[in-house]
Fold this sequence. Notes:
The protein is α/β, with parallel strands linked by helices. It contains ten helices and eight strands.
Amino acid sequence: xxxxxxxxxxxxxxxxxxxxICQLLAKKLGYHLLDSGALYRLTAVAGMAQNVDLHDDVVTxxxxxxxxxxxxPADSGVIAVLDGQDVTADIRKEAAGMGASVVxxxxxxxxxxxERQRSFQQAPGLVADGRDMGTTxxxxxxxxxxxxxxxxxxxxxxxxxxxxxGESANLRDLLDDIKARDTRDTExxxxxxxxxxxxxxxxSTKMSIDDVLKAILLxxxxxIN
Length: 225
Ligand code: DC
């Protein structure tokens, strides 16, 4: 691993604001962005398109290993092109998120995606968004953040996001889904969602996006600049 190229890892549960914060941070610093969740979502979407049982760890790992995906940076994060098709909207759907949390629990799938994730460490630096960025994928990252928010606040944010996109949503169902996903992500044996021992914990429940960004930029200033 190229140790001199700085990596900032932002880990945390769904809806903690990681996605938005990582995009803003990467833009501000001129760094590359790794949306690692997109790789698990792509694996699930590709598996569903091939009518594969997502609980099958061997078959889904094969799919993960051979994902033919290209990411293009965009203002709204990244555009994902799978086998020549823009699947950006598909991988953001609830079904892709639920499928991703199933395939992400398979050790062979995680192993299959490891080197691909590390290859994003390119000059001048990388902002890595995920669950195990600071613990497993980039243990030598110079800045590690663990971003959380209460489950209720995260469900509320997701609700507003879906309604804003013109999709239908039910707050109670979203809260149940978030809690189910949290349980799966934190209790799985493969790379469970947990803060790295050297991560800075930030609870964004009562913070604005701008406040969170400022807090992280302070850490970056102290450790990188
Ligand atoms: O961040 P996200 O919602 O796009 O992640 C989708 C799923 O993938 C989620 O259930 C957690 C899982 N995931 C993971 O296990 N490890 C990562 N580094 C990123 C996501």
